[in-house]
Amino acid sequence: MKDVLLLVGAGQIGMAIARRIGFDKKIIIGDKNLDNAKKIADIMYNAGFDVNYLEVDLADRISIKNYIQEAQKYGQIGMLINAAGVSPSQASIETILKVDLYGTAVLLEEIGKVIKPYGTGVTISSQSGHRMEALGSEIDEQLATTDCEDLLSLPVLQVENIKDNLPNASVKPLN
């Protein structure tokens, strides 16, 4: 069996990374939109990659666990490319936090349980991820250490503490 590379988010950036590092891997593309996943899988298959696609919803822990479990049927997971997410022009603040923050945290937590020793991963952020001001060490620590299931309950992540969602959502530091 080949090592498995998980590509979460069926878009051009994730595909470019997977094409660069995934030639000798079984690539499992996961996306909430199965049509998008199939399109990227078809492109990669036609370029000679060993690829399959599955549905995964980053806003749902069970969906993430099912995706990982299905991917493990093809071999040991050795790489993760997380290129999934929603932008302020696509979704509400609540959805952005549920997918981009909670979903990423759950994905990393669940992959961490099964990835082979010395496995690798990368999570991609849009430019919006670089536009917000520094949150401070206290909030950084909360975000880094709070259990995934409690993340969205943090005061700093309440809608009233988040700047408008267009053109870029960002968290306001609590003073």
UniProtKB/TrEMBL annotation:
SUPFAM superfamilies according to UniProt: NAD(P)-binding Rossmann-fold domains (SSF51735)
Keyword check for NADP: yes
Keyword Ubl conjugation assigned: no
Keywords: NADP, Oxidoreductase
Superkingdom of the source species: Bacteria
InterPro entries per the UniProt record, alphabetical: NAD(P)-bd_dom_sf, SDR_fam
Chain coiled-coil ranges: none
Molecular-function GO terms, alphabetical: oxidoreductase activity
Signal peptide: none
Similarity section: Belongs to the short-chain dehydrogenases/reductases (SDR) family.
Protein name per its UniProtKB record: SDR family NAD(P)-dependent oxidoreductase
